[in-house]
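RETRY 2/3 - previous attempt timed out on the joint model. Re-submitting the same 322-residue input unchanged.
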Amino acid sequence: MLGLAFAKGGGFVPPSTADFNLPPAIGNNPYTTKPIFLVVLSVVLISVFFIAASRKALVVPSKFQFAGESIYGFVRNSIGEEIIGHEFMRFVPFLFTLFTFILTNNVFGIIPLLQFPAMSHVSFPYVLAGFSFVIFHWVGIKKQGLGKYLKGIAFMPGVPKAVYILLTPIEVATFFLVRPLTLSLRLFANMFAGHLLLLVFIMGGDHLIRGVIGLKIIAPFAFTFGIGMTFFEFMVQCLQAYIFTLLTALFIAGALADEH
Amino acid sequence: MAGNEEGALWSIFGYLISGLIIWGGIGFGLDKWLHTHFFLLGGLVLGAGASLYLVWLRFGRE
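RETRY 2/3 succeeded.
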């Protein structure tokens, strides 16, 4: 409301959710918006990078090969092996895809000209969390059988029977509702808020430097802060890609374990 | 195992949230149904307590 009032007077229009609804590039086709293009671009970039990095694999790796291998090694060892344990190799392709896909799309948020994190549209994280959800439940059901798996979720061993009335709803809600929701919403909210934050500083600085309200002298501070925030965003973007992958690995590990 | 600690942190967070949602939600529904005002508060307290107990069962016993 406040923003609207300012806008009428020709003043500063604060960035809002409207800044996330980018118009379609081709006609009215809703499948031709910037986030879609960025997602496609990210898939192309990731594929080209890792195919090129692994094609001429040498014993003494080139810098390029080294970069590709260290990302892969990080996902395989620090996330896959350490969390899931001896069966981890089956899940490394999924975890690796998840990590590189989220990371690339997040980092697009601060790359000049691209500058939009696709994950700030909640449907992308929903789909990714949906994959994680289906996979970790499927793995658990396959490993333990449907009945035993559900029993392991719903009934904590070593608790008086009456307490189950209290605990079972919480356990079921955690596994089937809260886990996929927090997984996707955490990624979405971080990317959304981060993009909004950058918009505030950069657009605010732009507005100040035009001198409409006679505060030109403050504009450099706004831009400096914007640049600082960009580095901070880079950290958040990497961290969120890591956490999403880590939690997926943990859910899989939990489903594989005989007893939670 | 830094990763596992991070995971435990988020699992605990998840339990606390779902405890509040489930039992708070049941309390809210009872309030709507019976036109009372205390079930929501009771449900939230119950849910918070139950989820803390659950967290203790999962992570505190070892």
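Residues 32-256 of chain A form one domain. Closing ticket.
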